Fold this sequence. Notes:
The structure is a homodimer.
Chain A: H1 2-13, H2 20-31, E1 36-37, H3 38-47, H4 54-66, E2 70-73, E3 81-84, E4 91-95, E5 101-104, H5 109-122, E6 125-136, H6 138-144
Chain A binds a DNA duplex through helix 4.
Amino acid sequence: MKEKEALYQVLRMNGLRLTRTRRVFVELFTRNKKPISVLDILDEFRRTRQKVNKTTVYREIERWQTLHIVSEVLFGERVSRYELVLRGHHHHLVCVECEHVEEVEVNERDLHCQEKKMSQEKKFTFLRHSLEFFGLCAQCRAEKCF
Amino acid sequence: MKEKEALYQVLRMNGLRLTRTRRVFVELFTRNKKPISVLDILDEFRRTRQKVNKTTVYREIERWQTLHIVSEVLFGERVSRYELVLRGHHHHLVCVECEHVEEVEVNERDLHCQEKKMSQEKKFTFLRHSLEFFGLCAQCRAEKCF
DNA sequence: TTGACAAATGCAACTAAGTTGCATTAAGAT
DNA sequence: ATCTTAATGCAACTTAGTTGCATTTGTCAA
């Protein structure tokens, strides 16, 4: 697992101690493909019969964000989800029925081109954009037909 | 004001009574250019020295959503904002410094084309997407330079 | 114009997600 | 093994929104 090593290295390089909490975080984030919420993390601790306080989880997530280990993703809910930055820039397909999330590569050439044009017209500096797709995954679509 | 009439008509057509709350809603949504939060609405009532309970506001907003008078917009915060559906499909530039919001038209031909392709590859039915731009408006950019 | 009645509103209590301050515990350097 | 301070736990709080039920108020029919 190259990802795990990479994460442990970033933690070490930033002088962070190797705690039980961090080990669980590394496990969870490397194992999961889709963005993870604080509730997901708390569930994982419960599942493995380890105790943790939600404050600790929130604080650790904050640290991981400031170290750019994870970044926040929002799917139009009121909960924040997080994903590994090292997995690169990408977008998501979110199934509105079952919450299934899939990563997708979108060709952003056209989008960047438009940002450039708008930047000049509006004197607006573009820093980032959010682009997420919502719909029905293959399974839910099939189920919906009957 | 064509917009106001249109709104009052929708309300009437759906058998909704013409209450003080609804009048304020119509005023606010037609006057404002940018998406409005529940807090904005409560502030408007306070400003005009009218009393309203937050429950009423939340319930009215819910009604307006189900009647497709307004739609929810999220800018990666934890608050929901709403805007008039009759103003059509568009995207937003959001200034991360001053919260200023501007509507923008984006040419989505390329995006739709990609959605179509992905739809076939992934057997995913695309229902909608969210696309918002974050950056610095002209003023904030100027201020940031010193 | 006045009742009647459902729609609309108010109120209080609750939930979910996240935050803060401060006391306690435990990594890991010496 | 000890010491320092990062990390954690706990309780209390905040913010955004929700729910159940009692009260008020538009509107329609008489």
